[in-house]
Amino acid sequence: MPLTALRRTSGVTLSAALAAVTLIANAPQASAADVPSLRVLTYNTFLMSKNLYPNWGQDHRAAEIPKASFFQGHDVVVLQEAFDNSASDALARNASTQYPYRTPVVGRSKSGWDATGGAYSATTPEDGGVTVLSKWPIVRKEQYIYKDACGSDWWSNKGFVYAELNVNGTKVHVVGTHAQSTDSGCKAGEAAQMRSRQFKQIDAFLDAKNIPASEQVIVAGDMNVDSRSPEYASMLADAGLTGADARTGHAYSFDTQDNSIAADRYPDDPREDLDHVLHRAGHAKPAGWTNEVVKEQSAPWTVSSWGTDYTYTNLSDHYPLIASAAR
């Protein structure tokens, strides 16, 4: 965010400016106790299109995910890779009792949104796969489609959701996203460059909103940035975010050893910690904000492909991440 340069002024103007600064400094600021303390779940659901991936149990998992213990008792749920239309719609319906409010899926159409920004294209083959479910009324819904992508992401309308919630009369702003994946179709270093541009687009979008500092702004999703990598600090700077106060639970949200789906799909890839629920820097934030990776395990389920059975014990190739304040 740009800083305004100071300029020389006359004594009178300078005195007035100092008085104004004093008034701002003495203005009441929201304390952590005044900020709604929400529980937020972010989950990459791996609901790929059945047209391309017909044998990944999308319908079964869309029915089971809302029943899972990790899915219960949140204020906000941010989902990624809700690509398959029928499965993602079924998941939202199955979750509607506990989360009656929701946004459409990013990039699927312009219908149901209050505004659409960025590089939306009705002819792009795949949507962006991100949707927000909420316990609280969503009073404004906007989608923004990223202008930059590489590899297979080029063929989808990936971007972010902006949702304004009414939490007992208090505004809370939520951004849900799925950033550029590290893809073999991208050139060396290109995926990280795309993510940097995307995070800067989030920052610029929120800057333009002029949201008061007293209001909470949450940014959640599969950022495709490992929390232990040098890129993590760059992500925070590019998107204008502040890190969680603590990170607990399982060490990896994308675990190619212990997660049955990830191990099958990506046996040679490293374990990474890619999913995050963070706050916008300079805005109200509950004290003790913690990101916890839940090492989810489901009852075994089996699919068949070309006469061979495959059995899994997870509901996605990512583990869910639950964020909340210290209690």
Describe what this molecule looks like in 3D.
The protein is α+β, with helices and mostly antiparallel strands and 327 residues long. It has a single domain, classed as Deoxyribonuclease I, Chain A (4-Layer Sandwich), CATH 3.60.10. The chain is built from six helices and 16 strands. The strands form three sheets. A seven-stranded mixed beta sheet has the order 3-5-2-1-16-13-11, covered by helices on one side. A seven-stranded mixed beta sheet has the order 4-6-7-8-9-12-10. The protein has a two-stranded antiparallel ribbon with strand order 14-15. β7 and β8 form a beta hairpin. α2 packs parallel to α3 and α4 packs parallel to α5.
Task: Compose a concise summary of this entry.
This protein has helices spanning about 10-25, 60-65, 85-95, 190-210, 230-240, 260-265, and strands at about 40-45, 75-80, 100, 115-120, 130-135, 140-145, 160-165, 170-180, 215-220, 240, 245-250, 275-280, 290-295, 300-305, 310, 320-325. With about 325 residues, the chain is of the alpha+beta class. The strands form 3 sheets. The protein has a 7-stranded mixed β-sheet, covered by helices on one side.
Could you estimate the helical fraction of the residues in percent? 10-25%
User: What oligomerization state is this entry in?
Assistant: single chain
Could you give the order of the helices and strands?
Answer: HEHEHEEEEEEHEHEEHEEEEE
Shape: globular
How many strands in all? 16
Name the structural class: alpha+beta
The CATH first-level class comes to Alpha Beta
Mean pLDDT rating: 92
CATH architecture: 4-Layer Sandwich
Low-confidence stretches: 1-30
Percentage of residues in DSSP E strands? 25-35%
Radius of gyration based on Cα positions: 21 Å
End-to-end CA span? 33 Å
Strand order of the largest sheet: 3-5-2-1-16-13-11
CATH fold-level assignment: Deoxyribonuclease I, Chain A
